[in-house]
Amino acid sequence: MLCPLHLDHTGHLEAMTAELDARIEAMMQPSRAARDLLITIPGTGLRPAAAVISETGPSPREYFPAAGHLASWTGLCPGNHESAGKHGQGRRRHGNTHLQPALAEIAQAAVKHEGYLKSLYHRHVMRNGGYRSKSARNKAIITVAHAVLVIIWHVLAAGKPCNELGAGYFDRRLDPDREAQRLIARLEALGKRVTLQDAA
Questions:
Q1: pLDDT digit string (tens) for 57-82?
Q2: What is the pLDDT at residue 80?
Q3: CA angle 195, 192, 182 (to 5 degrees)
Q4: d(CA 44, CA 48)
Q5: What are the C-alpha distances in Å from 51 to residues 33, 97, 98, 99?
Q6: Which of 30-44, 75-89, 147-161 has the lowest mean pLDDT?
Q7: For residue 174, what are the CA distances in angstroms to 9, 125, 182, 187?
Q8: Do 95 and 76 touch, CB atoms closer than 8 A?
Q9: Element (H, E) at 131
């Protein structure tokens, strides 16, 4: 008896969802080029891209001269806490409560794919306590959401698709000599003697 009612209700919800998708698609037509650029960013689907454009517009550079201004308006910049001339990390600003969930959704999807954003997530999780710490994972997602927003600003400002920096981005940025000295120091602290020889 209840099964047909549930099926009817499910069918009604699916029909409403399809109608809303059609309306969103119609409203997105003037901004379709911007949306097509956004979906080149890892983790960004059609709906999150539409949500971003609905809040920032297709040309955020007109209102935000730099990516940092957009991040501040969105509330994804850490707050500033100053006491006795010393600066510390404060709470994030409240910002745009409609845009933040869309960026968090994109970040959650992005960290599941190999690339720059996943590497960024891993670095910040480990920096803040490791994967067993829910707080560390949450902080890392906010960091990735901020990075996504910066990418969004640059993609829309340049009018070009996202350029994936790759999973090895942070390794390539390392100073080879400085990294070698760091590794030597770690080995010596373990009681090992290290002799360096250039590879053939």
A1: 889 999 999 999 999 999 887 544 44
A2: 44
A3: 70
A4: 6
A5: 15, 12, 8, 7
A6: 75-89
A7: 56, 19, 11, 19
A8: yes
A9: none
